[in-house]
Amino acid sequence: MSNIPLNALESQENFETEDIILNKPNDDGHRIVVGNPNFYMPNPDDIQLDKVILSPIRSEESIDEGNKLDNIVKDEENSDEKDIMANFVASDDRFYPEGGFKAYTVVFGAFAGLVPVFGAFNMTSVIETYLQNHQLKDQTTTAIGWIFSLFQFMTCFTSIFSGFIFDNYGCKSLMIGGTILYFLSLFLMGECTRIWHFVLCYSLLNGFASGIMMSPLVSVSAHYFKRKRGHAMSLALTGGSIGGVTFPLILRPFFDKNEYKWGIRTISFVSLALLILSTCLMKERFYSNDKFRLSTMIDLKGLKEWNYLFCVLGVLTGEMSFNSALTFYGSYCNHVGLTINDTTIQITIMNTLSTVGRYLPGLLSDKLGRYNCAIFCLVMLTLVQYVAWLPFGKYGINAMYAISCLYGLGSGSIYSLLPVCVGQISDTKDFGKRYSTMYFVVSFGILISSPISGAIIGDKSYFNYQMYIVFCGALSGVAAVLCYISRYASTKTWGWIVF
């Protein structure tokens, strides 16, 4: 100590690097740091292992500023506890652009691809009504229902493989192969005249093509958005509604002239152009590194999570309701006195309102919660079926206009929100696998939903059609309950919370 000059200790250059501590404590029991008379070292007994704080002497203003900062941190922690959805977002440490030219180009590519892929789902009622009155007029409703049920089953079932390939290898190979098969299957469908023809070309081949493209088309937007994921995916999924609007309008003049073959061929060429555009624009950002085996393609471990399990069951019953209702909606319109032209218009109106239904709830879900919006829309759809469709459907075209509008709004909302709910409780790199696992389970429900509805309709009496509506409404009501249980399993509360 005595050998060190005092001026060296007091110099500004050595202030930060050569602080010397006196051996004798001051009157307060603290040891003084020489060179900084306002800074005290605490006693060793005062130091906590989990919280070491060196407290310099501060002015009253600095103390007030520190208190304000502490209050801000506490407020942020409280707000995070209230906003569970924000915690899920924060748990993902990946970077998401949340916008920009590249991100929205990918969203547009997914939109373009979903026009034909989900558009095929939305035009099933138009095709079913035409076949029931022409090529397959001698067949039963249940037999015809199997064509569309097998198509929907194949689409969902094959997504289990496309989800794994997308997560690990990207979307290009899936989109190229799916585009070729989709075009060929629709083009050949124009030549079909018997049930086994339609099963081979439409149910199996087109269903397989749609299935291998569905996972990348739905999942790729999630690679660019997290906080705005509901908005982005709803934009992409509106493509299905656009396809449901435009495809029946394209088919209508051909069906009026009984030119079924060229109507289907026209759809196939339009679909080819849209799918090529989609393939060129889509690009993934994340990859998994899983080995090619069944356990990595099906997320069986995820089904042990209560929130994911009940979400899958909710989507299962919801999809059974929608597909049953949409498949025989045109047949119901015919039964209550509407012509084929009027029926096509009803389906077009339904799909037009479905576009609005897919976009607005997706936009609101980022602020109000994805699960909250999905549950509300399922309840609303159930009420539409029991309060509007069941008692007033028999009153003809004017009543059906209102029912088509309301049902389109409700069903469109569900189609855009259910995939986002899965993304809400899934890691982004596993989203494709978990989404395809969900629809692998859903495919078995869809397989039996249309034949069950066809069996309920039976001899096409008005009472049987009423029971068919009751069946569809019950399924959507159960879906709302199951999604609510999934929400509780995620948030541990039955009350309101943004999730």
TrEMBL record:
- Check the record and name the CDD domains matching this protein: MFS_MCT_SLC16
Sorted alphabetically, which InterPro entries does this protein's record hold?
Answer: MFS (IPR011701), MFS_dom (IPR020846), MFS_trans_sf (IPR036259), Proton-linked_MCT (IPR050327)
UniProt-annotated location(s): Membrane
**Main subcellular location of this protein, as a coarse class:** membrane
Q: What is the topology of this protein in the membrane according to its UniProt annotation?
A: Multi-pass membrane protein
Record GO biological process:
riboflavin transport
Domain spans labelled Major facilitator superfamily (MFS) profile = 105-491
Superkingdom of origin = Eukaryota
Question: Care to name a GO molecular-function term for this sequence?
Answer: transmembrane transporter activity
Q: Does the record's keyword annotation contain Transmembrane?
A: yes
TM region(s), chain numbering = 103-123, 143-166, 173-189, 195-220, 232-250, 262-282, 368-389, 395-418, 438-457, 463-485
Show which residues constitute the signal peptide. none
Q: Which UniProt keywords apply?
A: Membrane, Transmembrane, Transmembrane helix
- Please give an example of a GO cellular component term from this record: membrane
Which family does the record claim for this protein?
Belongs to the major facilitator superfamily. Monocarboxylate porter (TC 2.A.1.13) family.
Q: What is this protein called?
A: Riboflavin transporter MCH5
- Source species: Hanseniaspora opuntiae
Lineage start: Eukaryota, Fungi, Dikarya, Ascomycota, Saccharomycotina
